[in-house]
Amino acid sequence: MQLKESLKELAAFMREERAQSEWNSVYLLIVFIIAAILIIALIKPMFKQSQDIIKDQPVLQDKK
User: Fold this and answer.
1) Contact at 8 Å (CB) between 47 and 53?
2) pLDDT tier at 1 (50, 70, 90 boundaries)?
3) C-alpha–C-alpha distance, residues 4 and 12, integer Å
4) Residue 31 predicted with pLDDT over 90
5) Phi-psi label, residue 52: left if phi above 0, alpha if psi -120 to 50, beta otherwise
6) Domain residues for 24?
7) What secondary structure, in 3-state letters, does 5-53 show?
8) Is residue 41 part of a domain?
9) Residue 3: phi, psi to the nearest 5?
């Protein structure tokens, strides 16, 4: 009986606008985390590739 009552209370809470607003914040946070992971996954190899290119090129020497 206690479980049924708490499930009913949870269902009523989830229908409230305040609860929906809180879930929207959670979804937005998840989207930002996924976007950050994707950006890091794309940018990091570009920096590594540029370091490899720079390593292969001769260093310019300052002539006096």
Assistant:
1) no
2) low
3) 12
4) yes
5) alpha
6) 2-52
7) HHHHHHHHHHHCHHHHHHHHHHHHHHHHHHHHHHHHHHHHHHHHHHHHH
8) yes
9) -65, -40
Total number of domains in the chain: 1
In this prediction, residues 5-16 reach a mean pLDDT of 76
What gap in Å lies between CA 41 and CA 55, rounded to an integer?
22
- Non-local CB neighbours of 13 within 8 Å, separated by 6+ positions: 19
Query: CA-CA distance, 25 to 19, in Å (whole number)?
Result: 10
- Flag whether 62 is in a domain: no
Chain centroid to CA 62: 44
